[in-house]
Amino acid sequence: AGAAMRTEISTAAAFVTRLLRAAGGIGEEQLQCFRECLQEALREHYKHHWFPLVPSRGSGYRCIRINHKMDPLVGKAAGMIGLSHERLFQLLPSELTLWVDPFEVSYRIGEDGSICVLYESPQPGGKTTKPLESRTSCKEEWRIGRSSPSKSYNMMTVSS
């Protein structure tokens, strides 16, 4: 399962790292270390909870969640670069949900925010999940915003 989940884990770790970079005040070297630590923590955490034949199975276990409590995996990776939970809460949205499933990585900022897809790949056997309308618009905003960071980060700013 290790190689199978590489893209999904890399996408999730890169997204959280981009949120931290956008908040500012953390050096590139620290951000790189954070990203690698988070990828390793996710790989280890998901090892026996990755089911490509039934992608939704184990979804709750693989969900990365910040909701007035720091996700332990994000907290662990941040600790490796000397960031406290308090500092993380200042840098990241106060409510963030990130779903890391086989063939799809998506997120939601706030409890009532739209679900935006970061990565999507067709499932083997031709089973494709039909994205919600709001997902498509989020995905387009994300794609357009990629080339100009300030624009995409303004879209994701959440005040706590």
Automatic annotation (TrEMBL):
InterPro entries xrefs: Anti_prolifrtn, BTG, BTG-like_sf
GO biological process: negative regulation of cell population proliferation
Recorded superkingdom: Eukaryota
Residues of the Anti-proliferative protein domain: 92-111
A Pfam family the protein falls into: BTG
PROSITE patterns assigned: BTG_2 (PS01203)
Stretches assigned to coiled coil: none
Cellular compartments per GO CC: cytoplasm; nucleus
Family note: Belongs to the BTG family.
Protein name (Swiss-Prot/TrEMBL): BTG1 protein
Species in which this protein is naturally found: Psophia crepitans
